[in-house]
Amino acid sequence: MRVPAQSVCTAIRDDIVSGVFERGGRLTEEQLARRYGVSRVPVREALRTLESEGFVVTRRHAGAHVAEPTEQEAADLLDMRALLEPLGAARAAQRRTEAHLKVLRGLVRLGQERARRGQGEDLRSLGSWFHETLAQASGSPALTALLTQLRHKIAWMYAVDLPAHPVEAWSEHGAIVDAVARGDAERARALTALHAERSLALYRLKRPERGRVRVSQHVVNTASGQN
C-alpha cells in the first residue's frame, strides 16, 4: 500500500519540531525513507510541502536541509499569531456551530478542573486543543491552516512555560467562549488579543543543540492521513 505523502510530511515535521533533526541539518531522501519505512516518492513530496511551509530549505548542489530561522523571524511568528488568533475568534463568533461550542465548553471545564488540580502537562494538550477548535470554528479553512502552521512553527522555535495562575488563564478561555457563544465578534476579538498578549511572557526561545539527529527506523502510521 502506498503511504500518503501527507503522513510522511507529518512525521518529518514532528521530528523537526521536536528537535530530532537539528536546524541546518541535511535531510536526504534515502535517510528519511529508511527512518519512516517508506519509499522515496512520498518523502520527496513531503519535502516539497515542508519547504513551502518554511521548515525545509533546498540548497543548490547540497539538497534539502532543515531551515534555520533567525531570532527576528521567530519573533515575527508571535506577532502573526497575535494578529490572526483574534481574527479567528471574531470569525468564530459569527460562524461557529453548536458542535464547536460543545467542544469548546467541554475543554474549558476540563482545563479549569486540571488547573485547580495542578495537572500541568494535561493543560498543555488541552490548551492546544482549545485553540485548534477555536480556529476551526472560524469557518475559514485558509485561516485555520495558517494558524495550524503557526502553532507548529512556534512549538519548533519556543519552549512554553506554564502560567503562574493557570486557573485565571482558563477563565480567560471561558470568557472567550462566552463571547463566541453570544455572537459578539468584537468582544471575542478583544479578549483573544488580550489573552495572547498576556501569554507572551511564557515563551522562551529555544537554543538549537547540535548533533541530535537520530536515524533509527520510525515507521509511519499508514492508517493516518491527518496533518
UniProtKB/TrEMBL annotation:
SUPFAM superfamilies: GntR ligand-binding domain-like, Winged helix' DNA-binding domain. Signal peptide: none annotated. The keyword Transcription regulation applies. The keyword Ubl conjugation does not apply. It comes from the Bacteria. PROSITE patterns: HTH_GNTR. This is GntR family transcriptional regulator.
